[in-house]
Amino acid sequence: MEWVLIPSWLVFACGVGYIADERGYSGVGWTALSIFLSPLLAVVVLLSKPNLVELAINQEREDRRHQEILAALAKRNASAQSTEGKMSNANAQSADGKMSSDDQTIMDQFGITYSLSRYHLDDRRFMELSDAVKYAKLKQGKS
């Protein structure tokens, strides 16, 4: 009877080692542990521990998802900066006196000035000429 028990014990211990290796743990270590303790006890303890392979795969997916999100945000920021750059270039052209004659006429009509990348009317500052004109029209309507 012992001649069946010892080979069975070793086969089950190797099975525990295989399961451990598939779950990301040391197959040799778990085989040795199950030989000295019990293959049944070792497999119960092993199955109660988290599967390291699945954890690594999930972490990799999550990292990839984060990288995709960061790439999308970087692309959006680059697009916003390019739009902002176009706006500042338009404002810089206005500051250099290359403003269209229609804009200059409107500014003169309402007393709007342009400096430091903003349109000024009274004590107020506006990013867009259209906003300054709306304010001027509202102010004239109240007078």
Short recap of the structure:
This protein is mainly alpha-helical and 143 residues long. It has helices spanning 2-22, 27-36, 39-48, 52-95, 101-110, 129-142; strands at 113-115, 118-121, 124-126.
Q: How would you describe the overall organization of this protein?
A:
This protein is mainly α and 143 residues long. It has three domains: 2-49, no CATH class; 51-97; 99-143, no CATH class. Helix content is 76%, strand content 7%. The chain is built from six helices and three strands; from the N terminus they run αααααβββα. The chain has helices at residues 2-22, 27-36, 39-48, 52-95, 101-110, 129-142, and strands spanning 113-115, 118-121, 124-126. It has a three-stranded antiparallel sheet. A hairpin with a 2-residue loop joins strand 1 (113-115) and strand 2. Helix 1 (2-22) runs parallel beside helix 3 (39-48) and helix 5 packs parallel to helix 6. 10% of the residues are buried. Mean pLDDT is 80; it is low at 86-95.
Q: Rg from C-alpha positions?
A: 37 Å
Q: How are strands sequenced across the largest beta sheet?
A: 1-2-3
Show unreliable segments: 86-95
Order of helices and strands: HHHHHEEEH
Give the number of helices.
6
Percentage of residues assigned to helices: over 70%
Distance between the termini: 112 Å
Strand content: 5-15%
What spatial form do the alpha-carbon principal axes imply? rod-shaped
Number of domains: 3
Strand segment count: 3
Name the structural class. mainly alpha
Mean pLDDT equals 80
